[in-house]
Predict the 3D structure of the following.
Amino acid sequence: MIMHSEQYKYLRFLSFKKLSQWYVEYYLNDNKIHSKYSLVSLRDLIAPKKEIIKKDDYDGILPIVEKITFKTGKVVFRETKTTGMNLYALQQNDLLISNINFHQGATALNTFGNIVASTHYQPYIINLELVRPDYLTMVLRTPFFLGVVSGKKSQGIKNESGYGFIGSFSLPLPQLEEQERLVTNYNDKIKNANDLEHKVSQIEDGIGDYLMKTLGATKKQGKVNRNSKYQHLKFINFIDVAEWGVDIIKKKQKKDIFKYPIVKIKDICLLGSGGTPSRSCPQYYKGSIPWIKTGEVLNEEIFETEEHITEDAIANSSARLYPKGSLIIAMYGQGDTRGRTAKLGIDATTNQACAVLHDIDNSIVSTDYLWYYLQGRYDDLRSLASGNNQPNLNAGKINNYDVVVPPMDVQNEMVAHIKKQKALLKQLKKKAQDIRERALKEFEKEIYNTDV
């Protein structure tokens, strides 16, 4: 029953049947959404799918969703098609939402065809008469909408986000033709960003090609005797490999040959590592001394760090202060981290997962040339890592790693060329990022009353 009496004009009344949560902020949060378009409940736009495949009936053919990337909404599939639990079946254009991470943007449109996902996810059928799947997915992933969701979830929804929670939200819903226009405008801008990022990839590849070409790199080719009784065996010459071990030779069978002399890293600099002060002493992390983790090693010069430590932290751990100009190699870390490098633009300490090249002999090799050389040998460095679950580099392998050393005038010429290319890369990356951010803000402004 809605009361229109003037004496209740400052109160909001809800019918009991519409109550799903028992705290005020949950319902006040809806007031944050304003739009020139009609607000339509998600319950009218999506409905849960309950097509279950029993774990024992899974045939190992259909791709299994591993995760939905928060930032991009990209669906990542498991490498191994096995399951210990029942699975939901999805068809083309079904919506997939992570019950646990809906509020962080773990929402994706199935554009892959027939796939499956664990019951930690929930597939939904989209009402195509009212909403375009691409428009719906975009709105559900906008920072503005996720802020509204997080505001409700943080107030009392601690477990998985079921249909009762998700269906309680309303979205701005233009006519289908207007939805198409909004999505097309957004996608046109994103295409421009993608084109710039493709150019970035080409330039990055070009830097690697330039490095190897200038150093005169070739592969030493072995001969195979097809008439030999050993034709089905593979023979490796000692001189042709950088390191022995079956697993290593499988990854990198032949070492590169160069036209310039080669030295070991241990012959041109000192190698150090770092340490992690005890987390049980929070005061160690309230200092002013920069402390670097491998996630901050991004092939860039480092001028600032996420965390800072104290002199006492250094005194009571294996952390050590390294001088500006030192080079860092990430020995291990998640994803692509292992093998990445950085140059210190400040004096700083590191954790134990970083190898630090310091006191570089600049009479033999310029610091910037060595840095760019190591960046160009990223894949080669990574191939030397060992270990089962998460392969790691170690100080011994880095110390004995080969560095090609051309004359100093060639080094300087290479550094000047690569610096110019990297400056162009930085400009293009920023431009692409700006386009993406602007496209999203403009989309949000169109559907919500927000400022760009």
In short: Residues 54 and 74 are 26 Å apart (CA to CA).
